[in-house]
Amino acid sequence: xxxxxxxxxxxxxxxxxxxxxxxxxxxxxxxxxxxxxTTLYVxxxxxxxxxxxxxxxxxxxxxxxxxxxxxxxxxxFVGGDYAVLTFDARxxxxxxxxxxxxxxxxxxDTRALRDWLAARPDVSDTRIGAWGISYGxxxxxxxxxxxxxxxxxxxxxTWSDLYTALAPQGLVKSGLVAGLAASIPDSRRDxxxxxxxxxxxxxxxxxxxxxxAERSSLSKLGSITAPVLIAQGRRDFLFxxxxxxxxxxxxxxxxALYVGLHGHTPSSFPAADTGYLMxxxxxxxxxxxxxxxxxxxxxxVAVASExxxxxxxxTTSLPRTATTALAxxxxxxxxxxxxxxxxxxxxxRAIEIFGSPTVRVPVAASGGWSRLVAVxxxxxxxxxxxxxxxxxxxxxxxxxxxxxRLFSQATFVPRRSRLTLTxxxxxxxxxxxxxxxxxxPPLPASARVRIGTAVLALPGLRAPVTR
Length: 467
Hints:
Blueprint: H1 3-13, E1 21-29, E2 35-43, E3 52-58, H2 65-74, E4 83-87, H3 104-118, E5 123-133, H4 135-145, E6 152-156, H5 162-166, H6 174-182, H7 191-201, H8 208-213, E7 228-233, H9 241-250, E8 255-260, H10 274-290, E9 299-303, E10 314-315, E11 321-328, E12 332-334, E13 340-343, E14 351-355, E15 358-366, E16 371-379, E17 385-394, E18 398-405, E19 409-413, E20 418-424, E21 448-451, E22 454-461
Parallel strand pairs: 3-4, 3-5, 5-6, 6-7, 7-8, 8-9
Antiparallel strand pairs: 1-2, 2-4, 9-10, 11-22, 12-21, 13-20, 14-19, 15-18, 15-21, 15-22, 16-17, 16-20
Helix pairs in contact: 1-2, 3-4
Protein backbone atom coordinates (compact mmCIF):
# COMPACT_ATOMS: atom_id res chain seq x y z
CA UNK A 1 0.00 0.00 0.00
CA UNK A 2 1.47 3.40 -0.95
CA UNK A 3 1.61 6.40 1.34
CA UNK A 4 -1.67 7.77 -0.03
CA UNK A 5 -3.43 4.61 1.12
CA UNK A 6 -1.94 4.94 4.60
CA UNK A 7 -3.37 8.45 4.76
CA UNK A 8 -6.72 7.14 3.56
CA UNK A 9 -6.70 4.51 6.30
CA UNK A 10 -6.39 7.20 8.92
CA UNK A 11 -9.20 9.20 7.33
CA UNK A 12 -11.50 6.18 7.12
CA UNK A 13 -10.74 5.19 10.71
CA UNK A 14 -11.48 8.69 11.92
CA UNK A 15 -10.17 10.02 15.18
CA UNK A 16 -8.93 7.12 17.31
CA UNK A 17 -9.81 7.46 21.00
CA UNK A 18 -7.07 9.02 23.09
CA UNK A 19 -4.83 6.29 24.42
CA UNK A 20 -1.65 6.22 26.43
CA UNK A 21 1.08 3.82 25.39
CA UNK A 22 4.80 3.39 25.07
CA UNK A 23 6.14 2.97 21.52
CA UNK A 24 9.52 1.49 20.66
CA UNK A 25 11.30 0.98 17.36
CA UNK A 26 13.30 -2.23 17.64
CA UNK A 27 15.50 -4.43 15.50
CA UNK A 28 15.21 -8.17 16.19
CA UNK A 29 17.77 -10.64 14.83
CA UNK A 30 16.58 -13.88 13.24
CA UNK A 31 18.45 -17.19 13.54
CA UNK A 32 20.26 -16.54 10.24
CA UNK A 33 21.46 -13.13 11.42
CA UNK A 34 18.94 -11.13 9.40
CA UNK A 35 17.63 -8.04 11.18
CA UNK A 36 13.85 -7.51 11.23
CA UNK A 37 12.60 -3.97 11.91
CA THR A 38 9.65 -3.78 14.31
CA THR A 39 7.43 -1.36 16.20
CA LEU A 40 6.19 -2.37 19.65
CA TYR A 41 3.28 -0.68 21.41
CA VAL A 42 2.61 -1.43 25.09
CA UNK A 43 -0.29 0.19 26.99
CA UNK A 44 0.60 2.47 29.90
CA UNK A 45 -2.30 1.24 32.02
CA UNK A 46 -2.26 -1.35 34.79
CA UNK A 47 -1.09 -4.66 33.35
CA UNK A 48 -3.60 -7.49 33.77
CA UNK A 49 -2.59 -10.65 35.63
CA UNK A 50 -0.48 -12.81 33.35
CA UNK A 51 0.45 -9.91 31.07
CA UNK A 52 -1.20 -8.02 28.22
CA UNK A 53 -2.91 -9.96 25.47
CA UNK A 54 -1.05 -9.13 22.27
CA UNK A 55 -1.52 -8.77 18.52
CA UNK A 56 0.96 -9.09 15.67
CA UNK A 57 0.10 -7.20 12.45
CA UNK A 58 1.49 -8.34 9.07
CA UNK A 59 1.47 -6.08 5.98
CA UNK A 60 0.98 -6.78 2.28
CA UNK A 61 3.51 -7.43 -0.49
CA UNK A 62 5.77 -4.43 -1.18
CA UNK A 63 4.39 -2.77 1.95
CA UNK A 64 5.91 -2.03 5.34
CA UNK A 65 4.97 -1.65 8.97
CA UNK A 66 4.04 1.99 8.46
CA UNK A 67 0.83 0.70 6.91
CA UNK A 68 0.02 -1.72 9.70
CA UNK A 69 0.95 0.94 12.27
CA UNK A 70 -1.71 3.17 10.69
CA UNK A 71 -4.26 0.33 10.85
CA UNK A 72 -3.45 -0.65 14.43
CA UNK A 73 -3.49 2.96 15.62
CA UNK A 74 -6.39 4.18 13.50
CA UNK A 75 -8.79 1.40 14.42
CA UNK A 76 -8.18 1.43 18.18
CA PHE A 77 -5.99 -1.64 18.70
CA VAL A 78 -3.15 0.41 20.20
CA GLY A 79 -3.11 1.78 23.71
CA GLY A 80 -6.14 0.15 25.25
CA ASP A 81 -6.22 -3.57 25.92
CA TYR A 82 -3.44 -5.00 23.75
CA ALA A 83 0.29 -4.93 23.29
CA VAL A 84 0.86 -4.66 19.51
CA LEU A 85 3.86 -5.69 17.41
CA THR A 86 4.21 -4.72 13.76
CA PHE A 87 7.18 -5.53 11.56
CA ASP A 88 8.67 -5.11 8.12
CA ALA A 89 8.65 -8.54 6.51
CA ARG A 90 11.98 -9.94 5.31
CA UNK A 91 13.15 -7.98 2.26
CA UNK A 92 10.69 -5.14 2.96
CA UNK A 93 11.04 -1.69 4.48
CA UNK A 94 13.92 -1.45 6.94
CA UNK A 95 14.34 -5.22 7.38
CA UNK A 96 17.20 -7.13 5.85
CA UNK A 97 17.10 -10.30 3.79
CA UNK A 98 15.40 -11.17 0.51
CA UNK A 99 11.74 -11.70 -0.34
CA UNK A 100 10.84 -15.37 -0.73
CA UNK A 101 7.03 -14.92 -0.94
CA UNK A 102 5.92 -16.40 2.39
CA UNK A 103 8.06 -19.51 2.19
CA UNK A 104 9.58 -21.53 5.05
CA UNK A 105 12.05 -18.72 5.82
CA UNK A 106 9.24 -16.20 6.33
CA UNK A 107 7.32 -18.71 8.48
CA UNK A 108 10.43 -19.08 10.66
CA ASP A 109 10.60 -15.28 10.99
CA THR A 110 6.94 -15.08 12.02
CA ARG A 111 7.45 -17.83 14.61
CA ALA A 112 10.54 -16.11 16.03
CA LEU A 113 8.75 -12.76 16.36
CA ARG A 114 5.75 -14.34 18.04
CA ASP A 115 8.07 -16.20 20.44
CA TRP A 116 10.04 -13.00 21.15
CA LEU A 117 6.79 -11.26 22.08
CA ALA A 118 5.61 -14.21 24.21
CA ALA A 119 8.87 -14.16 26.17
CA ARG A 120 8.30 -10.60 27.41
CA PRO A 121 7.23 -10.44 31.07
CA ASP A 122 4.54 -7.86 30.26
CA VAL A 123 2.85 -10.03 27.58
CA SER A 124 0.70 -13.12 28.07
CA ASP A 125 2.35 -16.06 26.31
CA THR A 126 -0.99 -17.78 25.72
CA ARG A 127 -3.06 -14.85 24.42
CA ILE A 128 -1.30 -13.68 21.27
CA GLY A 129 -3.24 -13.22 18.03
CA ALA A 130 -2.34 -12.23 14.48
CA TRP A 131 -3.88 -9.92 11.87
CA GLY A 132 -2.61 -10.09 8.29
CA ILE A 133 -3.60 -8.61 4.94
CA SER A 134 -2.86 -10.14 1.51
CA TYR A 135 0.80 -11.25 1.68
CA GLY A 136 0.61 -10.89 5.45
CA UNK A 137 -2.61 -12.92 5.59
CA UNK A 138 -0.93 -15.73 3.67
CA UNK A 139 1.93 -15.60 6.18
CA UNK A 140 -0.51 -15.86 9.08
CA UNK A 141 -2.28 -18.93 7.65
CA UNK A 142 1.00 -20.58 6.64
CA UNK A 143 2.41 -20.06 10.13
CA UNK A 144 -0.82 -21.34 11.69
CA UNK A 145 -0.62 -24.68 9.87
CA UNK A 146 3.10 -24.80 10.76
CA UNK A 147 2.02 -24.92 14.43
CA UNK A 148 2.78 -21.35 15.41
CA UNK A 149 0.42 -21.19 18.43
CA UNK A 150 -1.75 -18.20 17.58
CA UNK A 151 -4.67 -17.91 20.00
CA UNK A 152 -6.84 -16.22 17.35
CA UNK A 153 -6.28 -14.85 13.85
CA UNK A 154 -7.88 -12.50 11.35
CA UNK A 155 -6.83 -12.63 7.69
CA UNK A 156 -7.94 -10.15 5.03
CA UNK A 157 -8.05 -10.57 1.20
CA THR A 158 -5.58 -13.44 1.06
CA TRP A 159 -5.06 -16.97 -0.26
CA SER A 160 -5.28 -20.49 1.11
CA ASP A 161 -4.13 -22.22 -2.13
CA LEU A 162 -1.57 -20.10 -3.97
CA TYR A 163 -1.46 -22.23 -7.13
CA THR A 164 -5.20 -22.00 -7.82
CA ALA A 165 -5.04 -18.27 -7.03
CA LEU A 166 -2.26 -17.56 -9.53
CA ALA A 167 -2.90 -20.26 -12.15
CA PRO A 168 -6.52 -21.41 -11.98
CA GLN A 169 -7.06 -24.38 -14.32
CA GLY A 170 -3.35 -24.33 -15.10
CA LEU A 171 -3.21 -20.98 -16.92
CA VAL A 172 -1.18 -18.30 -15.15
CA LYS A 173 -2.79 -14.90 -14.58
CA SER A 174 0.23 -13.50 -16.35
CA GLY A 175 -0.62 -9.82 -16.03
CA LEU A 176 -1.26 -10.03 -12.30
CA VAL A 177 1.84 -12.15 -11.72
CA ALA A 178 3.98 -9.70 -13.69
CA GLY A 179 2.57 -6.82 -11.65
CA LEU A 180 3.27 -8.56 -8.35
CA ALA A 181 6.83 -9.38 -9.45
CA ALA A 182 7.46 -5.78 -10.53
CA SER A 183 6.46 -4.51 -7.07
CA ILE A 184 9.61 -6.05 -5.54
CA PRO A 185 12.99 -4.65 -6.71
CA ASP A 186 15.32 -7.27 -8.20
CA SER A 187 17.86 -6.47 -5.49
CA ARG A 188 15.41 -7.58 -2.78
CA ARG A 189 14.11 -10.76 -4.43
CA ASP A 190 15.36 -14.23 -3.67
CA UNK A 191 17.19 -15.32 -6.87
CA UNK A 192 15.01 -18.44 -7.16
CA UNK A 193 12.01 -16.20 -7.85
CA UNK A 194 13.55 -14.86 -11.07
CA UNK A 195 13.86 -18.36 -12.57
CA UNK A 196 10.36 -19.27 -11.42
CA UNK A 197 8.87 -16.10 -12.91
CA UNK A 198 10.57 -16.74 -16.26
CA UNK A 199 9.26 -20.32 -16.34
CA UNK A 200 5.64 -19.58 -15.55
CA UNK A 201 5.39 -16.53 -17.81
CA UNK A 202 6.72 -18.66 -20.65
CA UNK A 203 3.72 -20.94 -20.23
CA UNK A 204 5.13 -23.55 -17.82
CA UNK A 205 2.56 -23.15 -15.03
CA UNK A 206 3.44 -26.60 -13.65
CA UNK A 207 6.77 -25.17 -12.48
CA UNK A 208 4.86 -23.24 -9.82
CA UNK A 209 3.09 -26.26 -8.29
CA UNK A 210 5.69 -27.39 -5.73
CA UNK A 211 6.67 -23.79 -4.98
CA UNK A 212 3.04 -22.79 -4.37
CA ALA A 213 2.27 -25.92 -2.33
CA GLU A 214 5.01 -24.95 0.12
CA ARG A 215 3.29 -21.58 0.54
CA SER A 216 -0.31 -22.79 0.87
CA SER A 217 -2.30 -23.65 3.98
CA LEU A 218 -5.42 -25.27 2.53
CA SER A 219 -4.37 -28.93 2.70
CA LYS A 220 -3.65 -28.61 6.44
CA LEU A 221 -6.50 -26.39 7.58
CA GLY A 222 -8.64 -29.39 8.52
CA SER A 223 -6.49 -29.84 11.63
CA ILE A 224 -6.80 -26.22 12.80
CA THR A 225 -9.00 -25.52 15.83
CA ALA A 226 -7.78 -21.98 16.58
CA PRO A 227 -10.42 -19.26 16.01
CA VAL A 228 -10.08 -17.84 12.47
CA LEU A 229 -11.93 -14.90 10.91
CA ILE A 230 -11.49 -14.65 7.13
CA ALA A 231 -12.39 -11.44 5.30
CA GLN A 232 -12.52 -11.87 1.54
CA GLY A 233 -13.47 -9.33 -1.11
CA ARG A 234 -16.64 -9.53 -3.19
CA ARG A 235 -14.64 -8.50 -6.25
CA ASP A 236 -10.99 -9.47 -6.00
CA PHE A 237 -9.39 -10.78 -9.21
CA LEU A 238 -6.22 -11.91 -7.39
CA PHE A 239 -7.67 -13.82 -4.43
CA UNK A 240 -11.32 -14.59 -5.10
CA UNK A 241 -14.09 -15.59 -2.70
CA UNK A 242 -13.26 -19.28 -3.17
CA UNK A 243 -9.89 -18.83 -1.45
CA UNK A 244 -11.77 -17.87 1.70
CA UNK A 245 -14.89 -20.03 1.43
CA UNK A 246 -12.91 -23.24 0.84
CA UNK A 247 -10.70 -22.42 3.83
CA UNK A 248 -13.78 -21.66 5.94
CA UNK A 249 -15.26 -25.07 5.16
CA UNK A 250 -12.03 -26.87 6.15
CA UNK A 251 -11.49 -25.19 9.53
CA UNK A 252 -12.57 -27.10 12.64
CA UNK A 253 -12.53 -24.40 15.31
CA UNK A 254 -14.58 -21.22 15.74
CA UNK A 255 -14.67 -19.56 12.33
CA ALA A 256 -16.19 -16.65 10.46
CA LEU A 257 -16.20 -15.56 6.82
CA TYR A 258 -16.96 -11.96 5.89
CA VAL A 259 -17.34 -11.18 2.18
CA GLY A 260 -17.04 -7.42 1.86
CA LEU A 261 -16.12 -4.54 -0.42
CA HIS A 262 -12.34 -4.57 0.14
CA GLY A 263 -9.91 -6.45 -2.06
CA HIS A 264 -7.29 -6.32 -4.78
CA THR A 265 -8.19 -4.97 -8.22
CA PRO A 266 -10.91 -4.05 -9.10
CA SER A 267 -11.55 -3.31 -5.40
CA SER A 268 -9.41 -1.51 -2.83
CA PHE A 269 -8.45 -1.36 0.82
CA PRO A 270 -9.76 0.63 2.60
CA ALA A 271 -13.34 0.43 1.30
CA ALA A 272 -16.73 1.71 2.42
CA ASP A 273 -17.11 -1.13 4.92
CA THR A 274 -13.57 -1.17 6.34
CA GLY A 275 -14.65 0.38 9.65
CA TYR A 276 -17.27 -2.35 10.04
CA LEU A 277 -14.76 -5.06 9.12
CA MET A 278 -12.23 -3.79 11.66
CA UNK A 279 -14.92 -3.66 14.34
CA UNK A 280 -15.60 -7.34 13.62
CA UNK A 281 -11.88 -8.05 13.93
CA UNK A 282 -11.74 -6.22 17.26
CA UNK A 283 -14.74 -8.21 18.56
CA UNK A 284 -13.07 -11.44 17.39
CA UNK A 285 -9.89 -10.73 19.29
CA UNK A 286 -11.78 -9.49 22.36
CA UNK A 287 -13.71 -12.77 22.47
CA UNK A 288 -10.79 -15.15 22.07
CA UNK A 289 -7.96 -13.19 23.68
CA UNK A 290 -9.75 -11.26 26.44
CA UNK A 291 -12.72 -13.51 27.22
CA UNK A 292 -15.41 -11.04 26.13
CA UNK A 293 -18.83 -12.46 25.23
CA UNK A 294 -18.93 -13.97 21.73
CA UNK A 295 -20.52 -11.78 19.06
CA UNK A 296 -20.56 -14.54 16.42
CA UNK A 297 -21.81 -18.14 16.48
CA UNK A 298 -19.12 -20.86 16.20
CA UNK A 299 -19.53 -20.79 12.41
CA UNK A 300 -20.64 -17.45 10.96
CA VAL A 301 -20.92 -16.02 7.44
CA ALA A 302 -21.86 -12.53 6.25
CA VAL A 303 -22.01 -11.10 2.73
CA ALA A 304 -22.03 -7.32 2.52
CA SER A 305 -24.27 -5.53 0.04
CA GLU A 306 -22.63 -3.62 -2.82
CA UNK A 307 -24.63 -0.70 -1.42
CA UNK A 308 -23.21 -1.12 2.08
CA UNK A 309 -25.30 0.69 4.68
CA UNK A 310 -23.38 0.18 7.89
CA UNK A 311 -23.75 -3.51 8.73
CA UNK A 312 -24.10 -6.99 7.24
CA UNK A 313 -26.38 -9.87 8.22
CA UNK A 314 -24.62 -12.87 9.77
CA THR A 315 -25.82 -16.43 9.25
CA THR A 316 -24.40 -19.85 10.13
CA SER A 317 -23.57 -21.17 6.65
CA LEU A 318 -22.46 -20.17 3.18
CA PRO A 319 -25.28 -18.60 1.14
CA ARG A 320 -27.33 -20.78 -1.18
CA THR A 321 -27.16 -20.16 -4.92
CA ALA A 322 -29.19 -21.07 -7.99
CA THR A 323 -27.71 -21.38 -11.47
CA THR A 324 -28.91 -19.39 -14.47
CA ALA A 325 -27.83 -20.84 -17.84
CA LEU A 326 -27.59 -18.66 -20.95
CA ALA A 327 -26.73 -19.87 -24.46
CA UNK A 328 -24.59 -17.66 -26.68
CA UNK A 329 -24.89 -19.21 -30.15
CA UNK A 330 -22.56 -18.76 -33.09
CA UNK A 331 -19.41 -20.02 -34.75
CA UNK A 332 -16.26 -17.90 -34.87
CA UNK A 333 -12.81 -18.65 -36.29
CA UNK A 334 -9.91 -16.33 -35.58
CA UNK A 335 -6.12 -16.02 -35.49
CA UNK A 336 -3.84 -14.43 -32.86
CA UNK A 337 -5.10 -10.93 -32.16
CA UNK A 338 -8.67 -11.94 -33.01
CA UNK A 339 -11.58 -12.66 -30.72
CA UNK A 340 -15.14 -13.92 -30.46
CA UNK A 341 -17.67 -11.59 -28.83
CA UNK A 342 -21.14 -12.81 -27.83
CA UNK A 343 -23.81 -10.69 -26.14
CA UNK A 344 -27.04 -11.73 -24.44
CA UNK A 345 -30.42 -10.10 -24.71
CA UNK A 346 -31.38 -7.87 -21.78
CA UNK A 347 -31.75 -9.75 -18.51
CA UNK A 348 -35.35 -10.12 -17.41
CA ARG A 349 -34.36 -9.95 -13.75
CA ALA A 350 -31.42 -8.83 -11.67
CA ILE A 351 -28.89 -11.42 -10.59
CA GLU A 352 -26.35 -11.22 -7.79
CA ILE A 353 -23.62 -13.51 -9.07
CA PHE A 354 -21.87 -15.33 -6.22
CA GLY A 355 -19.15 -17.86 -6.91
CA SER A 356 -17.51 -19.03 -10.13
CA PRO A 357 -19.43 -18.59 -13.40
CA THR A 358 -18.52 -21.20 -16.01
CA VAL A 359 -18.28 -21.12 -19.80
CA ARG A 360 -18.76 -24.39 -21.65
CA VAL A 361 -17.79 -24.16 -25.30
CA PRO A 362 -16.63 -26.42 -28.19
CA VAL A 363 -13.13 -25.49 -29.33
CA ALA A 364 -11.09 -26.60 -32.34
CA ALA A 365 -7.47 -25.45 -32.04
CA SER A 366 -4.68 -25.79 -34.59
CA GLY A 367 -1.31 -24.39 -35.61
CA GLY A 368 -0.04 -24.06 -32.04
CA TRP A 369 -3.02 -22.30 -30.45
CA SER A 370 -2.33 -22.93 -26.74
CA ARG A 371 -4.77 -21.01 -24.53
CA LEU A 372 -8.26 -19.63 -24.36
CA VAL A 373 -9.24 -16.70 -22.14
CA ALA A 374 -12.82 -15.69 -21.32
CA VAL A 375 -13.85 -12.27 -20.01
CA UNK A 376 -17.42 -11.69 -18.84
CA UNK A 377 -18.69 -8.11 -18.76
CA UNK A 378 -22.06 -6.51 -18.06
CA UNK A 379 -23.47 -3.29 -19.44
CA UNK A 380 -26.17 -1.81 -17.22
CA UNK A 381 -29.24 0.05 -18.51
CA UNK A 382 -27.41 3.26 -17.55
CA UNK A 383 -24.53 2.34 -19.89
CA UNK A 384 -21.98 1.46 -17.20
CA UNK A 385 -19.67 -1.46 -18.13
CA UNK A 386 -18.61 -3.87 -15.38
CA UNK A 387 -15.97 -6.56 -15.72
CA UNK A 388 -17.81 -9.35 -13.91
CA UNK A 389 -15.10 -12.00 -14.02
CA UNK A 390 -12.54 -13.75 -16.19
CA UNK A 391 -10.72 -17.05 -16.50
CA UNK A 392 -8.67 -19.13 -18.88
CA UNK A 393 -7.37 -22.59 -19.71
CA UNK A 394 -4.51 -24.08 -21.70
CA UNK A 395 -5.60 -25.72 -24.98
CA UNK A 396 -4.05 -28.24 -27.34
CA UNK A 397 -4.58 -29.17 -30.96
CA UNK A 398 -7.80 -30.87 -32.02
CA UNK A 399 -11.50 -30.51 -31.26
CA UNK A 400 -13.07 -30.83 -27.82
CA UNK A 401 -15.55 -29.14 -25.51
CA UNK A 402 -13.97 -27.26 -22.65
CA UNK A 403 -15.27 -25.66 -19.46
CA UNK A 404 -13.64 -22.46 -18.26
CA ARG A 405 -14.21 -21.58 -14.60
CA LEU A 406 -14.16 -17.83 -14.08
CA PHE A 407 -12.84 -16.18 -10.93
CA SER A 408 -15.03 -16.61 -7.85
CA GLN A 409 -16.70 -13.23 -7.30
CA ALA A 410 -19.84 -11.50 -6.05
CA THR A 411 -21.27 -8.97 -8.52
CA PHE A 412 -24.74 -7.48 -8.66
CA VAL A 413 -26.02 -7.24 -12.25
CA PRO A 414 -29.18 -5.11 -12.54
CA ARG A 415 -32.28 -6.10 -14.46
CA ARG A 416 -32.18 -5.20 -18.17
CA SER A 417 -28.38 -5.39 -18.27
CA ARG A 418 -26.67 -7.17 -21.18
CA LEU A 419 -23.89 -9.66 -20.59
CA THR A 420 -21.00 -9.94 -23.04
CA LEU A 421 -18.57 -12.83 -23.28
CA THR A 422 -15.23 -12.20 -25.01
CA UNK A 423 -13.13 -15.23 -25.96
CA UNK A 424 -9.54 -14.72 -27.11
CA UNK A 425 -5.93 -15.52 -26.29
CA UNK A 426 -5.70 -12.72 -23.69
CA UNK A 427 -7.89 -10.44 -21.59
CA UNK A 428 -6.55 -7.41 -23.48
CA UNK A 429 -8.81 -8.48 -26.37
CA UNK A 430 -11.75 -7.32 -24.26
CA UNK A 431 -10.01 -4.04 -23.36
CA UNK A 432 -6.44 -2.82 -23.67
CA UNK A 433 -6.61 -1.91 -19.97
CA UNK A 434 -7.63 -5.42 -18.89
CA UNK A 435 -4.25 -6.86 -17.93
CA UNK A 436 -5.37 -10.03 -16.13
CA UNK A 437 -4.08 -12.41 -18.82
CA UNK A 438 -1.43 -11.08 -21.18
CA UNK A 439 -0.74 -12.40 -24.69
CA UNK A 440 2.28 -14.20 -23.28
CA PRO A 441 4.03 -16.17 -24.59
CA PRO A 442 3.02 -14.95 -28.07
CA LEU A 443 1.12 -17.46 -30.19
CA PRO A 444 2.64 -18.48 -33.54
CA ALA A 445 1.25 -16.74 -36.63
CA SER A 446 -0.08 -20.12 -37.81
CA ALA A 447 -2.36 -20.52 -34.75
CA ARG A 448 -6.10 -20.70 -35.31
CA VAL A 449 -9.11 -21.48 -33.15
CA ARG A 450 -12.78 -22.11 -33.93
CA ILE A 451 -15.37 -21.40 -31.23
CA GLY A 452 -18.90 -22.80 -31.27
CA THR A 453 -21.99 -22.04 -29.18
CA ALA A 454 -21.03 -21.08 -25.62
CA VAL A 455 -23.17 -21.85 -22.59
CA LEU A 456 -22.74 -19.48 -19.68
CA ALA A 457 -23.72 -20.76 -16.20
CA LEU A 458 -24.14 -18.06 -13.55
CA PRO A 459 -24.41 -18.95 -9.84
CA GLY A 460 -26.67 -16.35 -8.23
CA LEU A 461 -27.69 -15.74 -4.62
CA ARG A 462 -31.11 -17.21 -3.88
CA ALA A 463 -31.55 -14.39 -1.36
CA PRO A 464 -29.76 -11.35 -2.86
CA VAL A 465 -28.18 -8.92 -0.39
CA THR A 466 -27.93 -5.97 -2.80
CA ARG A 467 -31.10 -4.06 -3.56
